[in-house]
Amino acid sequence: MQPKDLVQLAEQFGSPLYVYDAAKIKSQYHRLTAAFSKVERLRINYATKALSNLAILQLLRQIGSNLDTVSIQEVQLGLHAGFQPEQIIYTPNGVSFEEIEAVAQMGVQINIDNLSVLEHFGTKHPSVPVCIRINPHVMAGGNSNISVGHIDSKFGISIHQMPHILRIVENTRMHINGIHMHTGSDILDIEVFLYAAEILFDAAKNFKTLDFLDFGSGFKVPYNKGDIETDIEELGKKLSKRFLAFEKEYGRELTLAFEPGKFLVSEAGFFLAKVNVVKQTTSTVFAGIDSGFNHLIRPMLYGSQHHIENISNPKGKERFYTVVGYICETDTFANNRRIAEINEGDILCFRNAGAYCFSMSSNYNSRYKPAEVLWKDGQGILIRERESFEDLLKNQIMLPLEVATA
Asked: Where does the record place the Orn/DAP/Arg decarboxylase 2 C-terminal domain (predicted)?
């Protein structure tokens, strides 16, 4: 997409605004499948939590993706978007047993990461195929909040508890059809990923009826020009070779599964916001925009960096700005960032805004959530309307007059 296209979309649909480039999502999907082209049975399960808009789910279904979900609501969204139950895997953490049973009744692949839940489910539903999520105790990921395979993580069943797993499976005679792991997000060192994969291969040898091995995801995308990223092609070459060798050793055909979210949609996303004020203080020039961490929380939550461009003045002389939002507390997107000269009314574009951006937005300060637009075949398609005051009132119940005045 060109800056002029984004400016036109901001003028057409207003700001703040999320825009997603369909062509980029498709190219990322095909890049991943090409990297593992030597694996005959490859399954890509898009991580719904990254960006759950129905139109995005429809687009991914159309290009061949399956779905990774973590809640019954995400399962329902997937079914509503046209996915078949067998195309969905459900990997909850800390949810009620009733929710797991409800999802199982939908015909979705269940993935369990808790010994007590595994035993309870296997006792009640031994014939329902179950995948087991293993914690390999491998630290991977760019931030402690998104590293989920280490020893202190709440996710997965410890690899050291394999004897307990096998005892439960033997006692309940439940059907284990998959083994799963996920070490974390923003993985740079593919050797760490391959090391964790060896742990999963060893775990898989304990089960004779597996249909698939799920290696999670966490592939890093570049956040700035020249930034480092996961070498998908190198990982594809090395892991494919090892997987095919294991498949022969195992003695039956297996599916190689991944659960990419950020890798597929992050770079496809643009967040557009209008500059309300330019404020000079004794030491800083603030660019205050018509948004805040209620719409894009990742910089404040994770310290994540989003490249920011002034698409209204792309060739302007660069100056240093601290870009802040309108939320009534510290609300900083970037400190002392070099950006083309900013004037009030300019449109700023935040890149890499496709993953965990709109999906983590809120109504904090009673602000409306932005609209979402899909850029496809040279035109912008509205895929979510901007919220209104009526949306804020929805589901709220005012006190009866006699109670309110008592």
From this structure: 18-354
